[in-house]
Protein backbone atom coordinates (compact mmCIF):
# COMPACT_ATOMS: atom_id res chain seq x y z
CA UNK A 1 0.00 0.00 0.00
CA UNK A 2 1.35 3.40 -0.94
CA UNK A 3 0.28 6.90 -0.04
CA UNK A 4 0.76 10.15 -1.82
CA UNK A 5 1.21 13.62 -0.32
CA UNK A 6 -1.87 15.81 -0.18
CA UNK A 7 -2.15 19.56 0.05
CA UNK A 8 -3.03 20.94 3.51
CA UNK A 9 -6.15 23.04 3.80
CA UNK A 10 -6.21 25.63 6.59
CA UNK A 11 -9.46 26.76 8.18
CA UNK A 12 -10.12 29.66 10.57
CA UNK A 13 -10.15 28.69 14.25
CA UNK A 14 -13.80 29.70 14.59
CA UNK A 15 -14.97 27.41 11.81
CA UNK A 16 -15.77 23.73 11.79
CA UNK A 17 -15.30 21.38 8.88
CA UNK A 18 -18.34 19.20 8.13
CA UNK A 19 -16.74 15.77 7.68
CA UNK A 20 -19.77 14.49 5.79
CA UNK A 21 -19.06 16.89 2.95
CA UNK A 22 -15.31 16.34 2.53
CA UNK A 23 -13.80 14.90 -0.60
CA UNK A 24 -13.98 11.17 -1.30
CA UNK A 25 -13.40 8.94 -4.31
CA UNK A 26 -16.97 9.36 -5.61
CA UNK A 27 -17.31 13.09 -5.04
CA UNK A 28 -16.66 15.73 -7.63
CA UNK A 29 -16.75 18.75 -5.31
CA UNK A 30 -13.41 18.94 -3.48
CA UNK A 31 -14.29 21.96 -1.32
CA UNK A 32 -15.30 20.97 2.25
CA UNK A 33 -18.44 22.49 3.71
CA UNK A 34 -17.66 24.91 6.53
CA UNK A 35 -20.10 25.63 9.37
CA UNK A 36 -19.88 28.60 11.71
CA UNK A 37 -19.11 27.86 15.35
CA UNK A 38 -20.16 30.20 18.13
CA UNK A 39 -16.99 31.02 20.06
CA UNK A 40 -18.73 33.15 22.69
CA UNK A 41 -17.99 31.90 26.22
CA UNK A 42 -19.12 32.89 29.66
CA UNK A 43 -17.06 35.46 31.53
CA UNK A 44 -14.95 33.95 34.31
CA UNK A 45 -13.82 35.98 37.31
CA UNK A 46 -11.46 35.11 40.15
CA UNK A 47 -11.91 36.68 43.56
CA UNK A 48 -8.79 36.80 45.73
CA UNK A 49 -9.44 36.89 49.46
CA UNK A 50 -6.27 38.54 50.72
CA UNK A 51 -7.41 38.23 54.33
CA UNK A 52 -7.65 34.46 53.87
CA UNK A 53 -4.17 34.33 52.36
CA UNK A 54 -2.76 36.27 55.28
CA UNK A 55 -4.59 33.98 57.71
CA UNK A 56 -3.15 30.91 55.99
CA UNK A 57 0.39 32.21 56.42
CA UNK A 58 -0.25 32.76 60.13
CA UNK A 59 -1.82 29.32 60.47
CA UNK A 60 1.09 27.55 58.79
CA UNK A 61 3.49 29.33 61.10
CA UNK A 62 1.37 28.50 64.17
CA UNK A 63 1.08 24.81 63.34
CA UNK A 64 4.67 24.24 62.26
CA UNK A 65 6.48 26.84 64.39
CA UNK A 66 8.79 27.27 61.42
CA UNK A 67 9.70 30.00 59.00
CA UNK A 68 7.35 30.28 56.04
CA UNK A 69 8.42 30.45 52.40
CA UNK A 70 5.33 31.29 50.34
CA UNK A 71 5.35 29.75 46.87
CA UNK A 72 4.02 32.20 44.30
CA UNK A 73 5.54 30.87 41.10
CA UNK A 74 3.75 31.13 37.74
CA UNK A 75 2.27 34.54 38.57
CA UNK A 76 0.91 33.22 41.88
CA UNK A 77 -0.45 30.16 40.05
CA UNK A 78 -2.30 32.40 37.64
CA UNK A 79 -3.99 34.55 40.27
CA UNK A 80 -1.77 37.60 39.86
CA UNK A 81 1.33 38.04 41.97
CA UNK A 82 0.83 41.78 42.35
CA UNK A 83 -2.59 41.17 43.89
CA UNK A 84 -1.35 38.45 46.25
CA UNK A 85 1.97 39.85 47.42
CA UNK A 86 0.63 42.26 50.05
CA UNK A 87 -1.32 39.44 51.70
CA UNK A 88 1.91 37.47 52.12
CA UNK A 89 3.76 40.25 53.92
CA UNK A 90 4.10 38.13 57.07
CA UNK A 91 5.88 35.31 55.25
CA UNK A 92 9.64 35.11 55.77
CA UNK A 93 10.23 34.94 52.02
CA UNK A 94 8.75 33.87 48.72
CA UNK A 95 9.69 31.17 46.24
CA UNK A 96 9.44 31.39 42.46
CA UNK A 97 10.38 29.22 39.50
CA UNK A 98 12.57 31.53 37.45
CA UNK A 99 14.55 34.76 37.43
CA UNK A 100 11.98 36.86 35.56
CA UNK A 101 9.36 36.13 38.22
CA UNK A 102 11.80 37.03 40.99
CA UNK A 103 12.81 40.26 39.27
CA UNK A 104 9.18 41.34 38.91
CA UNK A 105 8.54 40.70 42.59
CA UNK A 106 11.60 42.68 43.60
CA UNK A 107 10.49 45.56 41.39
CA UNK A 108 7.11 45.48 43.12
CA UNK A 109 8.92 46.43 46.30
CA UNK A 110 9.34 43.07 48.07
CA UNK A 111 12.45 43.41 50.24
CA UNK A 112 12.46 40.01 51.94
CA UNK A 113 14.23 36.89 50.61
CA UNK A 114 13.29 35.57 47.19
CA UNK A 115 14.29 31.99 46.39
CA UNK A 116 14.68 30.68 42.84
CA UNK A 117 13.53 27.11 43.44
CA UNK A 118 15.09 25.81 40.22
CA UNK A 119 18.12 28.04 40.51
CA UNK A 120 19.53 29.84 37.50
CA UNK A 121 19.99 28.51 33.99
CA UNK A 122 23.16 30.31 32.90
CA UNK A 123 26.19 32.10 34.29
CA UNK A 124 24.78 35.41 33.10
CA UNK A 125 21.54 34.74 34.96
CA UNK A 126 23.56 33.95 38.10
CA UNK A 127 25.16 37.39 37.88
CA UNK A 128 21.75 39.02 37.46
CA UNK A 129 20.38 37.11 40.44
CA UNK A 130 23.23 38.49 42.53
CA UNK A 131 22.41 42.03 41.46
CA UNK A 132 18.81 41.58 42.64
CA UNK A 133 19.94 39.95 45.90
CA UNK A 134 18.21 36.63 45.30
CA UNK A 135 18.86 33.26 46.88
CA UNK A 136 19.17 30.25 44.60
CA UNK A 137 18.60 26.53 44.81
CA UNK A 138 21.64 24.61 43.55
CA UNK A 139 20.89 21.18 42.18
CA UNK A 140 23.55 20.38 39.55
CA UNK A 141 27.26 20.91 38.88
CA UNK A 142 27.19 23.95 36.55
CA UNK A 143 25.33 25.91 39.21
CA UNK A 144 28.00 24.95 41.73
CA UNK A 145 30.72 26.24 39.41
CA UNK A 146 28.93 29.55 38.77
CA UNK A 147 28.48 30.12 42.49
CA UNK A 148 32.11 29.38 43.33
CA UNK A 149 33.60 31.29 40.40
CA UNK A 150 31.44 34.38 40.92
CA UNK A 151 30.51 34.83 44.58
CA UNK A 152 28.51 37.87 45.68
CA UNK A 153 30.52 40.90 46.76
CA UNK A 154 30.12 41.10 50.50
CA UNK A 155 32.62 43.89 51.08
CA UNK A 156 29.94 46.46 51.88
CA UNK A 157 27.13 43.99 52.50
CA UNK A 158 28.40 41.08 54.64
CA UNK A 159 24.94 39.54 54.92
CA UNK A 160 24.25 39.59 51.19
CA UNK A 161 21.15 37.34 50.63
CA UNK A 162 22.83 35.52 47.75
CA UNK A 163 25.41 34.17 50.21
CA UNK A 164 22.69 31.75 51.29
CA UNK A 165 22.13 28.92 48.83
CA UNK A 166 19.63 26.09 49.02
CA UNK A 167 21.46 22.84 48.26
CA UNK A 168 19.05 20.27 46.86
CA UNK A 169 19.19 16.64 47.87
CA UNK A 170 17.60 14.01 45.65
CA UNK A 171 16.16 11.96 48.49
CA UNK A 172 13.85 9.89 46.31
CA UNK A 173 11.85 12.02 43.90
CA UNK A 174 14.57 11.51 41.26
CA UNK A 175 13.98 14.74 39.40
CA UNK A 176 16.50 17.33 40.58
CA UNK A 177 19.32 17.35 43.08
CA UNK A 178 22.47 15.55 44.16
CA UNK A 179 22.31 12.04 45.59
CA UNK A 180 23.27 11.34 49.19
CA UNK A 181 26.86 10.45 48.31
CA UNK A 182 27.76 13.25 45.91
CA UNK A 183 26.12 16.06 47.88
CA UNK A 184 28.66 15.94 50.71
CA UNK A 185 31.71 17.09 48.67
CA UNK A 186 29.53 19.66 46.91
CA UNK A 187 28.48 21.07 50.27
CA UNK A 188 32.12 21.19 51.35
CA UNK A 189 33.12 23.17 48.26
CA UNK A 190 30.34 25.71 48.70
CA UNK A 191 31.03 26.06 52.42
CA UNK A 192 34.71 26.65 51.73
CA UNK A 193 33.73 29.39 49.26
CA UNK A 194 31.89 31.21 52.04
CA UNK A 195 28.30 30.18 51.40
CA UNK A 196 25.68 29.49 54.05
CA UNK A 197 23.87 26.29 53.12
CA UNK A 198 20.25 25.27 53.55
CA UNK A 199 19.61 21.60 52.78
CA UNK A 200 16.40 21.11 50.83
CA UNK A 201 14.57 18.25 49.17
CA UNK A 202 11.22 17.39 47.57
CA UNK A 203 8.74 14.70 48.57
CA UNK A 204 7.66 12.41 45.75
CA UNK A 205 4.35 11.56 47.45
CA UNK A 206 3.52 14.54 49.64
CA UNK A 207 -0.20 14.10 48.94
CA UNK A 208 -0.06 10.56 50.37
CA UNK A 209 0.91 10.95 54.05
CA UNK A 210 1.01 7.20 54.68
CA UNK A 211 3.18 6.36 51.69
CA UNK A 212 6.26 4.48 53.02
CA UNK A 213 8.55 6.34 50.60
CA UNK A 214 7.96 9.51 52.63
CA UNK A 215 9.73 8.08 55.66
CA UNK A 216 12.54 6.74 53.49
CA UNK A 217 13.09 10.24 52.14
CA UNK A 218 13.00 11.74 55.64
CA UNK A 219 15.58 9.21 56.82
CA UNK A 220 17.85 9.98 53.87
CA UNK A 221 17.50 13.71 54.50
CA UNK A 222 18.32 13.39 58.20
CA UNK A 223 21.31 11.15 57.51
CA UNK A 224 22.79 13.73 55.14
CA UNK A 225 21.95 16.58 57.51
CA UNK A 226 23.87 14.92 60.32
CA UNK A 227 27.02 14.88 58.20
Could you give a short description of this structure?
The protein has helices at 50-64, 73-77, 81-84, 99-107, 123-131, 141-149, 183-192, 212-226; strands at residues 15-18, 33-36, 69-71, 93-96, 114-116, 135-138, 164-168, 196-200.
Describe how the helices and strands are arranged.
Layout (H helix, E strand, L loop, with lengths): L14 E4 L14 E4 L13 H15 L4 E3 L1 H5 L3 H4 L8 E4 L2 H9 L6 E3 L6 H9 L3 E4 L2 H9 L14 E5 L14 H10 L3 E5 L11 H15 L1
Parallel strand pairs: 3-4, 4-5, 5-6, 6-7, 7-8
Antiparallel strand pairs: 1-2
Radius of gyration of CA atoms, rounded to a whole number: 26 Å
Biggest sheet strand order reads 3-4-5-6-7-8
Distance between the termini: 66 Å
Q: How many individual helices?
A: 8
Instruction: Detail the poorly predicted runs.
Output: 1-35
Biggest sheet layout? 6 strands, parallel
Q: List SSEs in N-to-C order.
A: EEHEHHEHEHEHEHEH
Shape summary: globular
Oligomer: single chain
Count all strands and give the number. 8
Q: Classify the beta-strand content into a percent band.
A: 5-15%
Q: What is the helix fraction of residues, given as a range?
A: 25-40%
Can you give the mean pLDDT?
Answer: 85
Structural class: alpha/beta
Amino acid sequence: MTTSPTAATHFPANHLVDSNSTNNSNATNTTPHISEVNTTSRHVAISINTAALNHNVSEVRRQTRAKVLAMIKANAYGHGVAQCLAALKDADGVGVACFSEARDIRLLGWDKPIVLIEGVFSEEEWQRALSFEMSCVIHHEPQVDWAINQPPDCTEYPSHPSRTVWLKLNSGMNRLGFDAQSIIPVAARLHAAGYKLILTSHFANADEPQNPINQQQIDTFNTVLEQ
